[in-house]
Specification:
The complex is a heterodimer of chains A (98) and B (149).
Chain A (H helix, E strand, L loop, with lengths): L1 E6 L2 E9 L4 H8 L5 E12 L1 H16 L3 E7 L1 H10 L6 E4 L3
Parallel strand pairs in A: 2-3, 3-4, 4-5
Antiparallel strand pairs in A: 1-2
Helix pairs in contact in A: 1-2
Chain B lengths: L2 E5 L6 H15 L6 H18 L6 E8 L2 E8 L27 H9 L2 E7 L4 E9 L8 E2 L5
Parallel strand pairs in B: 4-6
Antiparallel strand pairs in B: 1-2, 2-3, 3-5, 4-5
Helix pairs in contact in B: 1-2, 2-3
Chain lengths: 98, 149
């Protein structure tokens, strides 16, 4: 289960688990956004490689138009995934407290 | 003591797999802190089977408690041989504009668990992937087994 809120002038708040069953919906949601897009991940409990694919595709699209993707409040599981995948060198990531 | 369940080869079965691991960990008394990584590995292995496997028979998952963790077995009947421990390496140092989708999931599998073994039974056309995850210091490793289904 995953919910998405916000965007535009406010961060996109992702809550729940971003797995292969949710990746299409998240991609469609993020495809509507431009500029510097911030994802608030404080309630994002889980991220699989399908989610990484969404983030990469979105970041590349935004970069091409002068924007970027940034993530805030990233938990330990997500930090490990970003580190092992090298995404911590691609995306602007702000760790969270959990 | 062990837990076992089988899952149809559909991406939306991932939710059922997560429900199974939650219940299995509770019944087995396995460390719940390990469940996120176990779910991750199961999702990657299962979606790989759904995307590339040619069989139709359900995929079985067994979870057995071991000291400080679990041993998980994913059994794929009607399988072609594909050793996930020898999947092409992914260059995780590439910049964003040179990154391509694909392969990252299996790369991460090897990083998140203590060990992964792959076995294939030619006669039964059955593949078996066994991985261990414990709360001990991570020991990323890739071993090839000769498991039978």
């Amino acid at each position: 289960m995953l919910t998405m809120e916000g965007g535009g002038e406010t961060p996109v708040v992702l809550s729940g688990r971003l797995d292969a069953t949710q990746a299409g919906a998240v991609q469609a949601y993020l495809d509507r956004l431009d500029g510097v897009v911030t994802l608030d991940c404080r309630d994002l409990q889980y991220l699989s490689s399908a989610g990484l694919g969404v983030l990469l595709k979105t970041h590349k699209r935004l970069l091409g138009a002068g924007g970027r993707l940034r993530l805030t409040q990233v938990n330990r599981h997500l930090s490990d995934i970003f580190s092992y995948s090298g995404f911590d060198q691609i995306l602007e990531i702000e760790p969270g407290g959990r | 003591m062990s837990e076992r369940a089988s899952f149809e080869r559909r991406i939306d079965a991932i939710a059922d797999i997560f429900a199974f691991t939650a219940a299995a960990f509770a019944r087995l008394g396995a460390p719940d802190a390990l469940r996120t990584e176990v779910d991750f590995v199961l999702e990657e292995l299962f979606t790989n089977i759904v995307k590339y496997g040619r069989g139709e028979a359900p995929v079985a998952i067994d979870i057995v408690p071991i000291p400080d963790g679990v041993e998980v077995t994913v059994t794929e009947p009607e399988a072609d041989r594909f050793d996930v421990t020898r999947a092409p390496q992914v260059d995780v140092t590439l910049p964003a504009d040179q990154r391509q989708p694909g392969g990252l999931g299996l790369h991460l599998v090897g990083r998140l668990v203590d060990s992964v073994q792959y076995g294939y039974s030619q006669g039964e056309r059955c593949s078996r992937i066994v991985f261990r995850k414990t709360s001990n210091a991570p020991l990323p490793g890739r071993d090839n087994g000769d498991g039978r289904c």
